[in-house]
Design goal:
Elements: H1 14-31, E1 40-43, E2 49-50, H2 54-63, E3 71-75, E4 78-79, H3 89-108, E5 120-123, H4 124-129, H5 143-151, E6 157-161, E7 165-166, H6 175-190, H7 195-205, H8 211-245, H9 253-284, H10 293-312, H11 317-327
Parallel strand pairs: 3-6, 4-7
Antiparallel strand pairs: 1-5, 2-7, 3-5
Protein name: Glycosyltransferase 2-like domain-containing protein
Keywords: Membrane, Transmembrane, Transmembrane helix
Length: about 350
């Protein structure tokens, strides 16, 4: 059992628990004469239910990949079907946003610019070379990637597969508690922005990493931590804020053309809600059989527009909250672990 009170460890952090367990496992394997290179490790949360072919696909992918120590392996399909149809709409929208966002990101982005998230696997030797996880931090989804990335001097990237696992969507004791828990979970995820200063610091120190790789990751950080978080808020309220600061902007040529630009952007957004809703429902599976047709149709019709509300609330405020606290030098005192109701 992982003892409490080890100096330097963040209390209750998954990274500290995993590191303690992994080090003891490596010690036991070494003492028994096992070859460490015959082993891989996986991070799997307590609520994850693996597809029956998940381990088989992971094994095949690992064995068929060259330079295994320079890769991590992850599903691109993170589902939340364990309790998806039991939670309030905002929880379901946020869960599906993670599913669709991760899947599309794996398809569109370069593998070399994808960091680890939630459930992933790598060679046990890579874990040892990366010096395990950072036990001082309360967030560890992406931090392991950076430890392995710098241990391999920038030559480390993800390899996806498409066999899913299913996790629990955020669920509280009641409607209000569910929304509070979702905010607190996203606030904890928002602390993941600490990977930006940590990686930039190492970029300055490690001269073996190619300059263009550093530059690509700088742009990726800006896209992920700044643009994607703020874009919807700025599109919606940006011009109004600018005119409050400088009323003369209203008299510019840009101001006269802005309504047409905004109309085009919002129209495109609404059009893309149709395929996203379709694929969201396909991935989520059918709603409960005891739901009547009116309830099923109502959920589809209501949750489409609610996506916009989600983008202006849960996809914005928790992340800004976390980054602001980080900017002010605050520490994550309350390491919140989302309670599981199921």
């Amino acid at each position: 059992m992982h003892p409490a009170g080890i100096p330097g460890e963040a209390k209750g952090a998954a990274a500290a628990n995993r590191t303690w367990g992994a080090k003891n496992a490596v010690k036991a394997l070494t003492e028994s004469g096992e070859n460490i290179r015959n082993y891989i490790f996986s991070t799997i949360d307590a609520d994850h239910i693996l597809h029956p072919q998940y381990v088989a696909r992971l094994t095949h992918l690992y064995l068929s990949t060259d330079r295994r120590d320079n890769h991590y392996f992850s599903t691109a399909v993170h589902l939340f079907n364990n309790n998806l149809w039991r939670v309030p709409s905002m929880m379901r929208i946020e869960a599906n946003a993670v599913t669709l966002g991760s899947l599309s990101d794996w398809i569109v982005s370069k593998r070399a610019l994808k960091d680890t998230f939630s459930s992933y696997s790598a060679s046990l030797q890579t874990l040892i070379d990366a010096d395990y996880w950072d036990v001082t931090l309360g967030v560890d989804d992406t931090i392991f990637y950076w430890r392995a990335f710098f241990a391999r001097d920038g030559d480390f990237e993800g390899v996806p597969h498409y066999i899913p696992y299913s996790a629990d969507a955020v669920e509280g004791k009641n409607f209000i508690d569910s929304h509070v828990r979702l905010y607190r979970q996203l606030l904890r995820w928002g602390w993941g922005a600490i990977d930006f200063p940590l990686s930039m610091k190492e970029f300055l120190k490690n001269k073996k990493i190619k300059t263009w790789i550093k530059f690509e990751w700088l742009l990726k950080h800006i896209e992920k931590r700044v643009i994607l978080i703020n874009i919807v808020f700025l599109i919606t309220f940006g011009f109004g804020i600018v005119t409050l600061v400088n009323p003369y902007v209203k008299q510019s040529n840009f101001a006269y053309s802005l309504p047409n630009i905004m109309s085009a952007i919002l129209t495109i957004t609404l059009v893309f809600l149709i395929p996203s809703t379709y694929y969201r429902n396909k991935l989520a599976g059918p709603p409960p059989k005891n739901w009547n047709i009116f309830k099923k149709a109502g959920v589809v019709l209501i949750e489409g527009p609610l996506v916009i509300i989600n983008l202006l609330t849960y996809s914005f405020f928790p992340w800004i909250d976390a980054q602001t606290r980080l900017m002010l030098g605050k520490k994550m005192q309350d390491l919140y672990h989302t309670p599981k109701v199921r």
